[in-house]
Amino acid sequence: MPQSILVTGGTKGIGRAIVERFAREGYDIYTCARNAAGLEAMKQELLAQFPSIQVFTMKADLSKMDEVKAFAAAVKELTTPDILVNNTGVFLPGSIHNEPEGNLEFMMQTNLFSAYHLTRAFAEDMITRKSGHIFSIGSIAGITAYANGGSYAISKWAMLGFTKCLRQELKEFNIRVTSILPGATYTASWEGVELPVDRFMKAEDVAEAVWAAYNLSAYSVVEEMIIRPQLGDI
């Protein structure tokens, strides 16, 4: 039976790189994003390159609870994935004391609550099956405070805490849980910044880290992986 991976926010950046890395290995793909056209274009590209895999896509805004649950229900009708990658995230710069009202709520809903509820949707089936691997794509901002990080940093610190708790809860059921904590990665979030591209990490390097962590033997787990640009944080 083909193995499968669910990646939220799979059309761009780190999510897209992870999707392509696992598709290349023959994994069926389940993903969502807010842009239906982008999802369809990606699906056709993947099927053209890897005709043996299945690709399920669904338009969903994971800042909205009803759409998180609708996406989870749609996937559950088909499968419980072998791998769940909670990748969806949004960054709005600002300082806690004066950032726009609603920044905290929006980023917590998108960056943390979506991961929490998707994980709950699939965890019981993984427990029954006694297998699975859950990845959280966090951020250096979840371990290092910095100016102008505001509510984004709060949400990523919370994401790391969520993942640490999950690791302790699920280890006895043979389910591995991993936090990936990337530094500045060249994605659409950094477009327009006046820095050379080679100052950033490649999204493909983060995808390779996920692939490597997943491919350890059943006797080991990468609990946390910090990945930074070679020249340090930006």
Automatic annotation (TrEMBL):
SUPFAM superfamilies: NAD(P)-binding Rossmann-fold domains. Keywords: Oxidoreductase. Signal peptide: none annotated. GO terms for molecular function: oxidoreductase activity. Belongs to the short-chain dehydrogenases/reductases (SDR) family. This is Oxidoreductase. It comes from Mongoliitalea lutea. The lineage of its organism: Bacteria, Pseudomonadati, Bacteroidota, Cytophagia, Cytophagales.
